[in-house]
Amino acid sequence: MNDVRYIYDLSEGDASMKPLLGGKGAGVAEMNKVGVPVPDAFTVTTKACVETMNNGGTWPETLAEQIAQGLARLEERTGRTLGGTTKPLLVSVRSGAVFSMPGMMDTILNLGISDESVVAVAEESGNERFAWDCYRRFIQMYGEVVEGVPSHVYEDALSALKSSRGVENDTDLTAEDLKELVATFKEISNEQLGGEWTSDPREQLNRAVNAVFKSWQNPRAEVYRRANNISASLGTAVNIMQMVFGNRGDTSATGVCFTRNPSTGEKALYGEFLVNAQGEDVVAGIRTPRPLAEMREVLPEAYDQLIDTMHRMENHYKDMQDMEFTVEDGKLFLLQTRNGKRTAAAALKVASDLVDEGIITKDEALLRIEPGQLDQLLHPAIDPSHGRQPVALGLPASPGAAVGEIVFDADTAAERGGRGEPVILVRFETTPDDIHGVIVAQGILTAHGGMTSHAAVVARGMGKPCVAGAQGIRIDPVAKTLTIGATVFHEGDTMTLDGSVGKVYGEALALIPPQINEDFQRVVQWADEVRRLGVRANADNFEDATKARELGAEGIGLCRTEHMFMAQDRLPAVRKMILADTPEQRAAALAEILPMQQTDFEGIFTAMKGLPVTVRLLDPPLHEFLPNLVEQSLLVQRLELEGGDTAELAQARQTLSQVKKLHELNPMLGTRGCRLAMLYPEIPEMQARAIIRAALAVLDREGETVGVEIMIPLVALTKELETQRAIVVAAVEEEFAAAGRSLDYTVGTMIELPRAALIADKIAEHADFFSFGTNDLTQTTIGISRDDAENGFLTNYVMEHVLERNPFESIDVEGVGQLVTEGVTKGRSTKPKLKTGVCGEHGGDPDSVEFFNSAGLDYVSCSPFRVPIARFAAAKAVL
Ligand code: PEP
Ligand code: MG
Asked: 85 — alpha (psi -120 to 50), left (phi > 0) or beta?
């Protein structure tokens, strides 16, 4: 017998039970506990959902019975009966995930209204029209959400009724009209379900709970979870709560509020409300709501109580709260409170202010910040010198600026955006079904909806510029046009959005790089005080190095020298080197390249003076610097067809033969990295000389230079490193002898092949430092191509949860991570003070940073714009 508890009454929960009761369930229980007025409720646990999912959709044995008991207790506490002919109980059935997923899952309102109870609802509210309106809304919502009846079926019936009555708005329909509509709705629902329509509220409740369970797996929820790295295995709780009505007349209202401004973080009243409306009207942006401040005049008592509750809840949770409320006949009820989603700028300001207000400590403040979100601060803004007039104004729903071609549906946005094309998604209003388009769009523009509408909330969470509720724009999604006044924009036209001020421009404007403000500087300082990991940048030119330093990089962890080889003006010399027939020819070509490399290094070293710089010697296979095999073959063919034994043809043939000679079927596992340097020792020798000459030149010029760290790539065998180290050391020593002075330098290696990690104790005998190349290490450990996998099966694997995350994005702790840990441990068994870092893309991923911290690495290195993220992530890792 299964005696697991799947149901908790409102009074039995609290905030600590979030994993079991979900955010919403735990939130209302906690509010109830501290005396905030919330409607009575009970919660079906996430465990029930998970067990149902794992059991192919079949409920745990006792669940139905436990729900019935939970309902009976709720009926007893409220003195009401679900579907009763007197004092009827109406409930909402809402999803409630552990991590909030706004609007992604299903909700059913007004459950309990039925042929039996509708009369009582009318009598009790003294408003017959209201009762029948609730009933018809319920049938439609229940029909669509739970039974899968297509929405147009109801919409068509409603339109037909309105036109037969000669009215335009739903509100013009009378109680009698609505009664008729209810009858029609029931009839068509029954028809749609082949006579299986149920009117029994208890049966409806069970089905509604099941529909919410199922909605955990609907496509938009899946997409949202993937975008936010929420595990699919968590499941959702279901909250069954007594309905309170914000639509019972002019002393009723519904709204949402934040305890601080979620865009800027300012401590100011922020929220919206609607008189005589239900909650969904505000969230879905169906009617444009009024600013919260106006509620003071309309509903003064409820307003004062709300403000008081907002303060209490913020102090209680010690964080900015996002709350939903309803006023029923002047009485305030809180329906939900959660830590408010906010922009990165707001997150920093709120954290910084809460510390100043003595509510939280600096460490707590750091824990509040989502490192990945800081990306937003690094987003561009419109260059203020443009002098252009906006074509439309809307609400500044999510800050940042975006330029892109407009598209009118989420599928097109997903398709074009997925290809990396900058698009702006233009919608009348967004719904959770648009999520896949929202994720890849540069920005979002809607004609409708407020600051708390779906588009606004979702865009803000993602740091995506969004202008919502733009006035005077007309969207025709079928013709794919956007009309503003006399101007018509078509799909593909370019627009610019400024989500920080709510302006829309009908052309591409220049953007300027993001500004990092005082709050950022202050809070990141706190992060720096606590973190143990160093943070460096991957950069290979002066500009990137300068940017990286500005963003707080403490050196360069990876300078990829091949990027300098690939520059167009370098290629002729590089090709000469590759095509050389004799060591002398090669030496001559390398002599040409050396000063170019030296100049590049001088730039980087100048930007980084006083800090360590790891320069990695040439890594990719040589044929990457030559023309493509197919293209070269075609060139030869064309020249042959054109006839004549020209010098051009001879040259083309020679190049083709070189390309063929160097061509490899699997170049990633071929002659690259130190293997190439073993074949052509002149290359590492030249690079070592260029590095030392640059370091000395910068020392002379600037009075200070960098900590030179020379790194050998793709080592698998001890002998490789031993040989390469000797080549580098000999060249460096010769340079010192020639210059008549020296400087400190070290020679280390990348650990990016499993064998190197496994024999790290032996490798360490020849290395002053290790830098884990987790890109190649992931590729070679899992055996998946870093160039192809993400366009193929890997994406599928992530969608199907064969893998929870893309291992090129976030480190595979279980597998690849083991090799990192092993590499560190073994390396240090030989050299206890061996310096270790990571320079794969994972160095800027917050979850991976946490792992690298626990693995005992000394530093992470990532792209310049991710440096601030890594600094915060490194701090969070130790807290
Ligand atoms: C790596 O493999 O992780 C690495 C940093 O080197 P690259 O990406 O240049 O191969
Ligand atoms: Mg590599």
From this structure: alpha
